[in-house]
Amino acid sequence: MRIRRLSALSLTLLGLLAGCGQKDVATDGTEVVRIGSVAPLTGAQSHIGKDNDNGARMAVDEINAAGLSLGGKPVKLELISEDDAADPKTATNVAQKLVDEGVKAVIGHLNSGTTIPASKIYHDAGIPQISPSATAIAYTAQGYNTAYRVMANDAQQGKALGQYAVTRLGAKKVAIIDDRTAYGQGLADEFEKAAAAAGAEVVAREYTNDKATDFTAILTSIKGKSPDLVFFGGMDPQGGPMARQMKRLGLPAKLLGGDGLQNINFLKLAGADADGVVASSPGLPLEAMPGGAQFKQKFEAKYGPIQVYAPYAYDAVQVLVAAMKRADSAEPAKVLAELPKTDYAGVTGPLRFDAKGDTAGGAVTLYQVENGAWVVLETVK
């Protein structure tokens, strides 16, 4: 009898806990709707992760200040920030934690390598996921109706980079290095296809990892093949040291990268050796975004300089909440029915989704470092 009573009590407690995880009510009667925000908040990429988290938080704060009602009741959004440390295993643990805590949606993850494994967990739980920054094609190619992103993918970015390398930079022989992550390898693959199609010869394809900082052996091998250009698929903690080591080894090739390099931290890490480096970033330049100037003023007054993805994290929250308003509910199934209908005028530009959950018609902008600052070269649409 005692065992049965304890079992019944345990089940009752579990039921109460589950109910609290799904729906909370504040002391003033306002319903609390939890939204997850996941990015690397510690480690070498924390500067970008905190940028994402702050962009999402600013949107949540503004929405709460303006007031939100769903189903005829007042609602307060609560952003639950989690750190996946840019690690795929940690990302899946964090994703399950958020599901267990009853979040209604997730903004994130930052990296493709964390976004993709986490996306299955969100899909299985029926929870909407909008990434502000994961660009790997594989993320939305899985067929999950829960997976969305608000910036151009690697097919768009890699094509722009490959064509630019040949037609604008005049590269005839290119060497490629990637960090073996879903993002770095995926972008390098797309760059290779586009550069080869444009007429360049790929003289080397080398690999490193997203923890390395010494590329002397790889660059020495590449130097012997006399490329005009070195493309790196990876992030700034590796790209900065790579730029320095290319100069130290006397490798005259131009360094080209994607959005993993196009941020202010790369400039700090590469120092004077950053000058001349070219990198792309999905979307319009901040100053050309419809709401860019106002966003910059508000964000930097509160959080400091924008790294790169904060406007997209802000827009991801706004797109999500716009779907909640159309559904008149925060229930995931109802929100998922509305997300494909998105037609939102965001800070970053007009946002609509194709059948896969990719941003329709995303632009890609090329930048070059001049005198220690990123300068716009051109935008490809």
Strand content: 15-25%
Tell the overall outline: elongated
What is the CATH C-level name of the largest domain? Alpha Beta
Quick check: average pLDDT? Answer: 93
Q: Helical percent range? A: 40-55%
Q: What's the count of strands?
A: 16
Distance between the termini: 71 Å
- What low-confidence regions span 5 or more consecutive residues with pLDDT below 50? 1-22
Number of domains as seen in the coordinates: 2
Find the structural class using helix and strand composition: alpha/beta
Element order: H for helix, E for strand: HEEHEEHEHEHEHEHEHEHEHEHHHEEEE
Number of helices: 13
What oligomeric state is this?
single chain
Whole-angstrom Rg? 22 Å
Protein name: Branched-chain amino acid ABC transporter substrate-binding protein
Domain Leucine-binding protein: 33-372
Family: Belongs to the leucine-binding protein family.
Keywords: Amino-acid transport, Signal, Transport
Give a description of the structure.
- The strands form 3 sheets. Strands 1, 2, 3, 4, 5, 6 and 7 form a 7-stranded mixed β-sheet that branches.
- Strand 11 (254-257), helix 10 and strand 12 form a beta-alpha-beta unit.
- This protein has 381 residues and is an alpha/beta fold.
- The protein has 2 domains: 2-152 and 289-348, Rossmann fold, CATH 3.40.50; 155-282 and 364-380, Rossmann fold, CATH 3.40.50.2300.
- 50% of the residues are buried.
- It has 13 helices and 16 strands.
